[in-house]
Amino acid sequence: MRIAPILIAAAMVLALPAQAKLPFVKKAKDLGFAEITSCKSCHVDAMPKKGASAANERGAFLTKMKADKKVAEVDLNWLKEYKGK
């Protein structure tokens, strides 16, 4: 019976990375970008770690826009300007 709390705690800890950027996916869908379905829409990895994941073509576009505009966070409205896949 003592293993159940450990398993529950482990499941909660492992679920945290999956929820980290879920608001970005939800916001993209709310803005009408139905093709954004997961982290892999902008990253190479399915569950990217902050600052340690390579960006795919769309992610590189957003990163470039962030640098060009000199802002702290990506604005998903920039996807309106994205002409890639």
Question: What can you tell me about this protein's structure?
Answer:
The chain is mainly alpha-helical. It contains three helices and no strands. The protein has one domain. It has helices at 3-20, 22-30, 57-69. Residues 13-20 have low confidence and may be disordered.
Looking at how many chains there are and whether they match, the oligomeric state comes to single chain
For the record, give the distance between the C-alpha atoms at the N and C termini, rounded to a whole number: 51 Å
Secondary-structure class: mainly alpha
* Major sheet: none
Shape: elongated
Total helices: the number is 3
Count of beta strands: 0
Fraction of residues in helix: 40-55%
Radius of gyration: 16 Å
Overall average pLDDT:
80
- What fraction of the residues are assigned to beta strands by DSSP? under 5%
What are the salient characteristics of this protein?
mainly alpha; single chain; 85 residues
What does this entry show, briefly?
The protein is mostly helical and 85 residues long. The protein contains 3 helices and no strands. It has helices at 3-20, 22-30, 57-69.
Q: Can you lay out the helices and strands and say which pair or pack?
A:
Layout: H1 3-20, H2 22-30, H3 57-69
